[in-house]
Task: inverse folding
């Protein structure tokens, strides 16, 4: 069920401000692609354009093409609501619904798809999703407690469980581990490895080791100066990018020689 | 040793903290004192009215049979007004905060704030002069088609019924409730809204997933403010309802409805003397208690699920 993504010559604007310019990148199905690059170079912006979440921001718009398994993401008859049901997203800051129990949080997406489920069936979905997210043992005795009562790392894994409970084709993750301890981080990295067999995963990270550990492909974004648009500098197999980058900027960034 | 001394020393008290603590504690106590003062006044002055014999007061009735229709009228009027106003207020607030283009939303919000400043006598006039006559055919229609519901009995010829009063009340409490709801809706954390949208929620589903749960206690507060105003509103109700002392009836569109406590006090206070005044004050005590209970119940409602409020 995983789908591939093909981006061709994508420009992303916030109002008049060109934030990301000319991105062309193929992303294979059932692979993990990591986006790396300095702060403000447009990684989040680009990631959001992949499930049309940028449209939530006033004045944000894109030019160019994004094809999901050959289907134009920005075609007139594409409903952003359906797009987002197919392409899940995990945010940098954990955002479980604070007014819902852990159980209901996991099922929030299912309810939107207005699937009527029997109790046994939804129990099943909740357990499976929480197990996948590596959270099950920690919360199985308090599924009816509010999601906001969990630690930050647990909340993030709850968000991952929520995102995968609807079995999306593609999973976008924006620095999912930036607020987590090394143990939770490694749980999530293991999870990404597992999920790769079913989903196409795109992950933004500031952690080079993480990019090296989890991803098949790495894309390096950079911006040439303040107020200039971010660009995709280089994309390739992760080993190749880390061991033998083609661009000097990539090499400098990876080796930490960067302003 | 210096370390133990350091720990023993009391933390420095900063004058700003002290002043502020004093001020806020004082304000809190002041509220309690005022409330207690009103309560004591009402009780002291009201008890003779409660105990008065029928031939000692203008109404010619014992206190309970006299006040009961007024309590009924008050509760019915306030409840129906709230039932009408809450959904409308939430809808308008949501439109302003999340649906309307920003400019339009601002203009709308401004207009709503203006409406809140219109004095109640104007609403009363509008109720009598405009709304009541225009409701007459509608009431006739209700009676004709829905008379099996006890609310829609024999219709009034003038349209000056408790239902008309309820609608006027609803319009009156709408602006303040809308304004509060709008402010709360606007403060929904972006994070939660995006969580809902990223799951593929439509705008309305986002409202249900992220906005309403977050705004729950605020909506209750808004409703309580509206209810408070509806319970206590005198002028508009007194103007619309022609009859001062109707009997308890389920019919909302008839010509003889009980008035509300507040309107009744306003209408009768001038011509009352002696124990009749005490009886009116006693009815005020009843209103005071009702308001108290309602607020208490609303707080309890919010409190019950406070763990899930998102404030933690
Ligand atoms: N909502 C917004 N409105 C206007 N400009 C924005 C908005 N969000 C981001 N930008 C701008 O777009 C550019 C790219 O921002 P983006 O958040 O995509 O960077 P990023 O690569 O994700 O950075 P970080 O690593 O710090 O998360 C920045 O110049 C930023 O100021
Ligand atoms: Mg970012």
Result:
């Amino acid at each position: 069920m995983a789908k591939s993504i093909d981006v061709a010559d994508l420009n992303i604007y916030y109002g008049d401000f060109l934030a990301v310019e000319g991105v062309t990148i193929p992303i294979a199905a059932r692979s993990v692609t990591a986006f790396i690059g300095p702060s403000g170079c447009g990684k989040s912006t680009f990631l959001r354009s992949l499930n049309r979440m940028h449209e939530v921001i006033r004045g944000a718009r894109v030019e160019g093409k994004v094809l999901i398994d050959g289907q134009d993401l920005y075609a007139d008859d594409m409903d952003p609501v359906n797009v987002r049901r197919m392409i899940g997203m995990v945010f940098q800051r954990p955002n479980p619904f604070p007014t819902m129990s852990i159980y209901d949080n996991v099922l929030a997406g299912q309810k939107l798809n207005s699937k009527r489920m029997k109790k046994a069936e939804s129990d099943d979905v909740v357990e499976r999703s929480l197990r996948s997210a590596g959270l099950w043992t920690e919360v199985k005795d308090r599924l009816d407690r509010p999601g906001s009562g969990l630690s930050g790392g647990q909340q993030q894994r709850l968000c991952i469980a929520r995102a995968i409970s609807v079995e999306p084709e593609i999973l976008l993750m924006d620095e999912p581990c930036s607020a987590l301890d090394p143990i939770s981080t490694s749980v999530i990295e293991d999870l990404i490895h597992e999920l790769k067999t079913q989903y196409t995963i795109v992950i933004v990270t500031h952690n080079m080791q993480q990019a090296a550990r989890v991803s098949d492909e790495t894309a390096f974004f950079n911006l040439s100066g303040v107020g200039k648009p971010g660009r995709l500098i280089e994309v390739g197999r992760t080993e190749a990018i880390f061991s033998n980058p083609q661009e000097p900027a990539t090499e400098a960034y990876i080796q930490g020689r960067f302003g | 040793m210096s370390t133990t001394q350091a720990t023993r020393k009391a933390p420095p008290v900063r004058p700003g903290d002290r002043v502020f603590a004093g001020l806020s504690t004082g304000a809190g106590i002041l509220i309690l004192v005022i409330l207690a003062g009103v309560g004591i006044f009402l009780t002291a002055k009201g008890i003779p009215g409660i105990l008065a014999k029928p031939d000692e007061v203008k109404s010619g009735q014992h206190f309970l049979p006299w006040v009961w229709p007024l309590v009924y009228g008050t509760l019915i009027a306030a409840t129906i007004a709230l039932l009408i106003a809450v959904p409308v207020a939430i809808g308008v607030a949501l439109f302003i905060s999340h649906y309307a283009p920003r400019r339009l939303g601002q203009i709308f919000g401004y207009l709503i704030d203006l409406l809140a400043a219109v004095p109640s006598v104007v609403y009363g006039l509008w109720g009598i002069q405009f709304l009541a006559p225009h409701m007459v055919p509608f009431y006739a229609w209700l009676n004709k088609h829905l008379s099996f519901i006890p609310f829609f009995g024999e219709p009034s010829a003038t349209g000056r019924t408790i239902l008309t009063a309820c609608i006027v009340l609803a319009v009156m409490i709408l602006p303040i409730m809308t304004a509060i709801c709008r402010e709360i809706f606007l403060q929904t954390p972006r994070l939660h809204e995006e969580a809902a949208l990223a799951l593929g929620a439509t705008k309305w589903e986002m409202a249900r997933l992220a906005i309403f749960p977050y705004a729950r206690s605020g909506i209750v507060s808004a409703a309580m403010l509206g209810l408070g105003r509806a319970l206590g509103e005198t002028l508009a109700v007194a103007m619309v309802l022609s009859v001062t002392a109707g009997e308890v009836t389920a019919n909302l569109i008839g010509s003889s409805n009980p008035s509300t406590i507040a309107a009744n006090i306003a209408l009768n206070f001038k011509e009352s003397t002696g124990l009749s005044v005490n009886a009116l004050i006693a009815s005020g005590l009843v209103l005071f208690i009702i308001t108290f209970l309602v607020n208490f119940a609303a707080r309890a409602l919010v409190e019950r699920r406070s763990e899930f409020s998102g404030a933690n």
Remarks:
- Chain A is about 35% helix and 25% strand.
